[in-house]
TrEMBL record:
Catalytic activity: heptanedioate + ATP + CoA = 6-carboxyhexanoyl-CoA + AMP + diphosphate
Subunit structure: Homodimer.
A GO term for molecular function: 6-carboxyhexanoate-CoA ligase activity
Entry cofactors: Mg(2+)
Organism, scientific name: Metabacillus fastidiosus
UniProt cross-references to NCBIfam families, sorted A to Z: bioW, PRK01322.1
Family statement: Belongs to the BioW family.
Domain of life from the UniProt record: Bacteria
Keyword annotations of the record: ATP-binding, Biotin biosynthesis, Ligase, Magnesium, Nucleotide-binding
InterPro entries registered for this protein in UniProt: BioW
Assigned EC number: 6.2.1.14
Protein name as catalogued: 6-carboxyhexanoate--CoA ligase
Pfam families: BioW (PF03744)
Pathway this chain belongs to: Metabolic intermediate metabolism; pimeloyl-CoA biosynthesis; pimeloyl-CoA from pimelate: step 1/1
């Protein structure tokens, strides 16, 4: 049986912390853990921060806190990998997938016109599906999706079943994209990492699933972007609360009864 009490374990690491105006984000991450597994969770996040290709951190914070709110269980998005030969081809495909997800072409074009400013925030930016305007008020902070993880062993069983090479990066990204797309306000997500050694990104939506694109930027580029296309007819404050505060477990269908979750 799963223990009833869960903890949010979070990490953030940065460089040049003495000069806050110029501090560089190195790494961040979060796991949901039982009390007995907190040490293991801390070690996973510590290893991630200390071996990141963005550089060596001179500041790191790891903390945990008890989760008081009931946990929601959702199933992972379906995954497809799209092989492309270049960043340009990848971005063309990303635009096409966004259109298939229901985002108007004029909105996509407007987002790409303003793309440079959307690569600056540390978190995600929220863009209205109809107007193409940014609608959150977080400026360079952006929205941080938090309190999300897989139920124990569900990612391993999921990746084995679908013969997908599982790793921590895919585990985290698919969990995050699944949570982001599950809310009524969500239309689609466009994302690629700020890791200079990782050029794969994705477009995700309830309609099209989690669509990996093997090249969305050039190798060595430290700019990453995360854009959430949202329906402003829905309550945005509720969506932001859901993204940042609502605890969610990703659960692979067919294994819940076995785990006693």
């Amino acid at each position: 049986m799963e223990e009833a009490k869960y903890y949010s374990v979070r990490m953030r690491a940065s460089q040049n912390i003495a000069d806050q105006s110029e501090s560089k984000h190195i790494s961040g991450g979060e796991l949901i853990s039982t009390y007995s597994n907190i040490k293991e969770s801390v070690n996973i996040l510590l290893e991630k921060a200390l071996t990141h290709s963005r550089g060596n951190a001179d500041f790191m914070q790891i903390q945990f806190e008890a989760i008081q709110e009931p946990v929601e269980y959702i199933k992972p998005l379906e995954v497809r990998t799209n092989e492309v030969a270049s960043m340009e081809a990848g971005q063309v495909l990303a635009k096409s997938l966004l259109e298939k997800a229901g985002i108007p072409k004029k909105t996509i074009d407007k987002v790409y016109e303003n793309l440079s400013q959307y690569l600056e925030p540390a978190g995600a930016v929220l863009v209205d599906v109809q107007s193409g305007e940014r609608v959150d008020d977080r400026k360079n902070k952006g929205i941080r999706v938090s309190r999300i993880d897989w139920l124990p062993y569900h990612f391993e069983r999921w990746s084995d079943f679908y013969h997908i090479k599982g790793n921590q990066r895919l585990r985290e990204a698919l969990a995050l994209a699944t949570k982001v797309s599950s809310h009524p306000a969500a239309a689609a997500e466009l994302c690629w990492s700020d890791d200079p050694d990782y050029v794969t990104g994705y477009v995700a939506s309830k309609r099209e699933g989690y669509q990996r694109i093997t090249k969305l930027k050039e190798y060595g580029d430290e700019r990453g972007g995360r854009i959430f296309f949202v329906h402003c007819s829905e309550e945005l404050d509720s969506y932001i609360y859901y993204l940042e505060k609502k605890p969610v477990f990703i659960q692979w269908e067919g294994s819940r009864e076995e785990d006693g979750a």
